[in-house]
């Protein structure tokens, strides 16, 4: 297929903005809801535990709860790259709608497990089916937009998940009121109802889920051509390149992908820790079961506002590293407050800051990665590596926030702060490298174009 000619600046008119709005409305709300369901279904463990699952399945024995939390991430880490490589082979719509419905069925079955061993098995299956979802969403979104439009879209997609996920604690509380109906305990109703909702959205996704720009069916050929031309002008990868074993190995040898993956691990670690343990931490601060469930929501509302504010700043001023660094510092301040202040209100305020900082870094790092990549094949590999490291962050969170450290979780606090410092170091190294490479292009001393694309500059 011939390369597409680029658009002139005067071609980006009112019609283009209307097309982008159409893409936004077709893509972001549905992907955001699916992201929310993914977040809820993998992190409602703490809510169910608070609602009685702990006693029913004897999860307080040893480190059983940490094992149940951790085991989900094993298939997530192992399967994300293979799953991303399957997207074009099986088709975005068929593949992802199947994954959503399948993990919904697993979630539903969790409401009927008779012992903690069966809960472990269902958590593994949940990880198998959820593994390919998030990297695929990031990959798909990044193919539709220019580099400095993408963080707001990633943030919006993630923000819907954060908002709905935040209210999941209130929804879970409502579901616990069904406890005893049909002889089913309160904690089981959380899994059953949320699993059924996920299955329904898996069916909806089959009808409305968007694909890659060159494969979409909801835009006219002329509008599709405009989308492809905009991307071609921005970074020269509007059309997919050939994916071969040699190409995959070449991408895997790029150290920057692994550095950004480690950065992502460092920011997902506190995000997962908060989602899994927030109700337990709040309970340890002295609030009762009902208050712990209800007080879980406000930090996520605050995080959503923070995410959109920093994403808007990042795209407007075309800055990535500085915004990520600011949010990492906010995370450190918040975790320190949550771990060491004496008053429950002060510690609760710390959870607000820690959640906002860590959640905001997630779309920031994804955009930092997406902005500095050219070619569909590298984008598929990079998003899989990055999000796989996010799964490792989840494993880390499950290990360092131990039942034995309740209610202060000081070892987990130390580990979270250490992760933020490591992320800042890696961010400094990669940004310095990008700056030097940009400088060599401007001075004419580079051995060749960056990422093999003439006129391309890294986003700092």
TrEMBL record:
<feature type="transmembrane region" description="Helical">
    <location>
        <begin position="413"/>
        <end position="435"/>
    </location>
</feature>
<dbReference type="InterPro" id="IPR011701">
    <property type="entry name" value="MFS"/>
</dbReference>
<feature type="transmembrane region" description="Helical">
    <location>
        <begin position="93"/>
        <end position="118"/>
    </location>
</feature>
<feature type="transmembrane region" description="Helical">
    <location>
        <begin position="347"/>
        <end position="368"/>
    </location>
</feature>
<feature type="transmembrane region" description="Helical">
    <location>
        <begin position="61"/>
        <end position="81"/>
    </location>
</feature>
<protein>
    <submittedName>
        <fullName>MFS general substrate transporter</fullName>
    </submittedName>
</protein>
<keyword id="KW-0812">Transmembrane</keyword>
<feature type="transmembrane region" description="Helical">
    <location>
        <begin position="257"/>
        <end position="281"/>
    </location>
</feature>
<dbReference type="GO" id="GO:0022857">
    <property type="term" value="F:transmembrane transporter activity"/>
</dbReference>
<keyword id="KW-1133">Transmembrane helix</keyword>
<feature type="transmembrane region" description="Helical">
    <location>
        <begin position="157"/>
        <end position="180"/>
    </location>
</feature>
<dbReference type="InterPro" id="IPR020846">
    <property type="entry name" value="MFS_dom"/>
</dbReference>
<dbReference type="Pfam" id="PF07690">
    <property type="entry name" value="MFS_1"/>
</dbReference>
<feature type="transmembrane region" description="Helical">
    <location>
        <begin position="380"/>
        <end position="401"/>
    </location>
</feature>
<dbReference type="GO" id="GO:0016020">
    <property type="term" value="C:membrane"/>
</dbReference>
<feature type="transmembrane region" description="Helical">
    <location>
        <begin position="321"/>
        <end position="341"/>
    </location>
</feature>
<feature type="transmembrane region" description="Helical">
    <location>
        <begin position="124"/>
        <end position="145"/>
    </location>
</feature>
<keyword id="KW-0813">Transport</keyword>
<dbReference type="InterPro" id="IPR036259">
    <property type="entry name" value="MFS_trans_sf"/>
</dbReference>
<feature type="transmembrane region" description="Helical">
    <location>
        <begin position="293"/>
        <end position="314"/>
    </location>
</feature>
<keyword id="KW-0472">Membrane</keyword>
<feature type="domain" description="Major facilitator superfamily (MFS) profile">
    <location>
        <begin position="27"/>
        <end position="439"/>
    </location>
</feature>
<feature type="transmembrane region" description="Helical">
    <location>
        <begin position="186"/>
        <end position="209"/>
    </location>
</feature>
């Amino acid at each position: 297929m011939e390369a597409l000619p680029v658009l002139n600046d005067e071609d980006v008119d009112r019609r283009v903005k209307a097309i982008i709005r159409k893409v936004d409305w077709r893509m972001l709300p549905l992907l955001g809801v699916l992201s929310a369901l993914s977040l809820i279904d993998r992190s409602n463990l703490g809510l169910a535990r608070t609602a009685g699952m702990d006693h029913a399945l004897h999860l307080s024995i040893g480190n059983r709860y940490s094992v149940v939390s951790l085991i989900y991430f094993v298939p997530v880490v192992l399967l994300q790259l293979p799953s991303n490589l399957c997207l074009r082979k099986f088709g975005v719509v068929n593949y992802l709608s199947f994954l959503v419905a399948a993990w919904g069925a697993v979630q539903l079955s969790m409401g009927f497990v008779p012992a903690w061993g069966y809960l472990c098995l269902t958590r593994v299956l949940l990880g198998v089916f959820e593994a390919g979802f998030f990297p695929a969403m990031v990959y798909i979104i990044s193919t539709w937009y220019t580099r400095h439009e993408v963080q707001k879209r990633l943030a919006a997609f993630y923000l819907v998940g954060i908002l709905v996920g935040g209210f999941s604690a209130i929804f879970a509380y409502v579901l616990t009121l069904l406890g005893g109906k049909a002889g089913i305990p309160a904690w089981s109703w959380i899994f059953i109802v949320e699993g059924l909702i996920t299955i329904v959205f898996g069916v909806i996704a089959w009808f409305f889920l968007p694909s890659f720009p060159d494969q979409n069916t909801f835009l006219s050929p002329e509008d599709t051509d405009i989308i492809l031309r905009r991307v071609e002008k921005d970074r020269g990868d509007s059309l997919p390149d050939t994916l071969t074993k040699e190409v995959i190995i070449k991408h895997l040898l790029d150290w920057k992908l692994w550095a950004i993956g480690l950065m992502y691990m460092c920011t997902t670690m506190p995000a997962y820790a908060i989602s899994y343990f927030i109700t337990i931490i709040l309970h340890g601060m002295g609030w009762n079961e009902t208050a712990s469930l209800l007080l879980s929501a406000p930090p996520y509302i605050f995080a959503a506002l923070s995410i959109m504010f920093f994403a808007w700043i990042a795209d407007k001023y075309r800055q990535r590293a500085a915004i990520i660094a600011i949010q990492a510092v906010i995370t450190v301040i918040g975790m320190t407050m949550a771990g060491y202040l004496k008053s429950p209100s002060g510690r609760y305020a710390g959870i607000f800051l820690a959640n906002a900082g860590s959640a905001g870094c997630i779309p920031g790092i994804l955009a930092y990665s997406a902005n500095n990549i050219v070619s569909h094949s590298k984008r598929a590999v990079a998003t899989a590596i990055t999000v796989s490291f996010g799964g490792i962050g989840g494993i880390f969170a499950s290990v360092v926030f131990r039942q034995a450290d309740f209610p202060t979780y000081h070892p987990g606090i130390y580990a979270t702060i250490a992760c933020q410092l490591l992320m800042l170091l890696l961010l400094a190294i990669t940004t310095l490298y990008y700056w030097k490479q940009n400088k060599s292009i401007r001075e004419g001393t580079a051995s060749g174009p960056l990422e093999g694309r003439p006129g391309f500059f890294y986003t700092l």
